[in-house]
Amino acid sequence: MELQIAPTIPARRSLFRSDAAQRLLAFAALIVLFIVFSVASPNFLQFNNMVGILLATAVNGVLALGVTYVIITGGIDLSIGTVMTFAAVMTGVFITNWELPVLIGILGGIGAGMFAGAINGVVIAKMKIPPFIATLGMMYVAKGLALIISQLKPIYFNGAPEFREIAMGSIIGGVLPQFEVPNAVLIMFGAAIVASLILTRTILGRYTFAIGSNEEATRLSGVNVDRWKIAVYTLTGTFAGIGGVIMAARLNSAQPALGQGYELDAIAAVVIGGTSLSGGEGTILGTVIGAFVLSVLTNGLRILSVPQEWQTVVTGAIVILAVYLDILRRRQS
């Protein structure tokens, strides 16, 4: 009888103490923020401002998708912001400096991010360097390479006007002009769907959760943990590459000094969305919600003319609260 009853107990607990609880809390916080800022300022709910929030979420959202995988494994990636910049610079080199077709430049930029992610994975899995140190090193390497390759100057895409349309054009606007939404937003949602399918429907997703839940048990089960760790960090680098292409297209230039600090926003979005820093738990939907919480908060505080430094303080306090809630949830379970 005990063998039959035991499985039902964790299932009942998971209904209230799983990451779903924090994900619902994040969604509730998003709704509350919308209500508060809508009441505080009539400009908040204007269509142009809503589009601005979506566009502000696009790059950070894509970066956060990649970081979700790493954090679920119990790791961290501090390099994703500067890898994004490195990918943007490489895109500029391919399209502007080498005058290659736009498609080749895009694939080259994404490939640059993928390569940096693979290096992170090899250093962590094979050299056994802690993820914090390995990705911190890559953060500086990617930043330095972006500055060296660009010769400290922005790379503009004036010779390829169609490149900007990738992020700032609007497929929806061609059909419904009154609801013109930048393509960057559609790319983010498309990337989120793909990321969710990978996480929930593929062997990579299953091993991502397994490694984060109990890495040693996964290894003893015969799984090549090192290989799957490399795959996870490579995938994270791929999302950084996509984010770099979107950022370059949005600005119509590759800015080599841009990028540092984006990794903190991405990690914050993942944590707010319910992914546990201890590993083994997390969802793509929660990450998307977390990214929107940050964007709505920043946008609303800006509309209310709250100084930038106080915006940063509020964001930091919310991240600390999200981590504390995760700790309480794990203690209870």
Overall description:
It is a single chain. It contains 16 helices and 2 strands. Strands 1-2 form a two-stranded antiparallel ribbon. The protein is mostly helical and 333 residues long. The protein is globular and about 55 Å long.
Short description:
The chain is mostly helical. The chain has helices at residues 2-5, 8-17, 19-40, 47-72, 80-97, 102-125, 131-150, 161-168, 171-175, 183-201, 203-213, 215-220, 225-251, 262-272, 284-303, 308-332, and strands at 155-156, 253-254. It is 77% helix and 1% strand.
Report the CATH architecture: Orthogonal Bundle
Determine the mean pLDDT.
90
Strand order of the largest sheet: 1-2
Give helix and strand order, one letter per element, not per position.
HHHHHHHEHHHHHHEHHH
β content, as a range?
under 5%
Total domains, how many? 1
Q: Helix fraction?
A: over 70%
